[in-house]
Amino acid sequence: MERLDSKFHGKYTALKKRKLLDEGMERKREAELKELYDAMKDWISDLNKNNAELNEKLVEKQDELEKTRQEFLEDIHTRDSEILRLKQLLDEKAEKSNSKATGLLGRTPESILENSTPMSPKRKTPLSHGKVKRVQLSENAPHSSPTEESQELECSIRHMCISGNGTNEIRGAHMLCSLLQSLVRMKISVNDETEIFSISVSHEASGYSFTLTWLEKSDEWSYKLSSLGTLERIAADWMRQDIRFSMNMCRMFFERISSIISKG
C-alpha cells in the first residue's frame, strides 16, 4: 500500500511540475506576444503619422504643380498674343512696303516726265530732270527695308540706263549713285572712261568689290569680280565667276550679296 502511495505521489509531483512549467512558458509567451503587439502598434502608429505627413506634402506639391501649370499656360497665352501682335505689325508693314514698291516699279520714265516741270530751252536732256525728281522723291521717303531698297535700286538703275550716255546724264548718274550707296550700303561709282555704262561697287569693310556693265543689246548686266577681300572663305562660287543677269534679277543679286556680307 505504501508502495502504491509512493508511486501516485511521484506521478502527482511530476504532473504538478510539468503544469507549473507549462504555465510559466504560457505566461512568458503571453508577455512576448504582448510586447510584440505593443511594438507593432507603435510601428503602425508611426506609419500612419508618416503617411499623413506624406499626404500633406503631396497635396502641397500638387497645389504647386497646378499653380506652375496655370502660370505656364498664362505665359504661353501672353507670348502667343505678343507673337500674333508682332506678326500683324509685320504683315501691315510688309503690305505697306509692297504697295510702295509696286508704286515705284509701276512708274515709267514717261509718267515721271509728264508730271515734271517743263525744262528751259537751254537744256537738251529733259530726262535729267526726271532723274533729279526721282532722287528728291527717294531722299524724302522714309527708311525702307532691304527688299524695298533693292526694288528702288533696280528701278533707279533702269531709269539711269534709259537716260543715255551724254555729259549731263553721267553727271546725273554720279548724283544718283550717291543715293544708291545709301540704299545698298556699298560704295558705288560710275566709270567715265568706258563708252558703255559701267559702275564699280565696293564694300569697304570687307574689301569686296566688283564691276557691273550694262549690255544694251541683250538688256543684261555683266558682273565681273575685282576682289573678294575678307569674303574669300565664305564667298559663293558664282561670286568668283563672270556672270550675266537681267534687270529683273537686280533685287535678288544685291539681296544675296548683302546676305553673304552680313555673315562675314
Overview of this structure, please?
The chain is 66% helix and 11% strand. The protein is of the alpha+beta class and 264 residues long. It folds into two domains: 56 residues; 139 residues, no CATH class. It has a five-stranded antiparallel beta sheet with strand order 1-2-3-4-5. Strand 2 and strand 3 form a beta hairpin. Helix 4 packs across helix 6. About 19% of the residues have low confidence.
The count of helical stretches stands at 6
Strand elements, count: 5
Q: Give the terminus-to-terminus CA distance.
A: 132 Å
Query: Unreliable segments (pLDDT under 50, ≥5 consecutive)?
Result: 108-147, 158-166
Look at the structure and give the mean pLDDT. Answer: 74
Rg is 49 Å
Basic shape = rod-shaped
Alpha-beta content class: alpha+beta
* SSE succession: HHHHHEEEEEH
Task: Tell me the β content.
Answer: 5-15%
What percent of the residues sit in helical stretches (DSSP H or I)?
55-70%
Query: How many strands, which pairing sense, and closed or not: the largest β-sheet?
Result: 5 strands, antiparallel
- Largest sheet, order of strands side by side? 1-2-3-4-5
Domains (count):
2
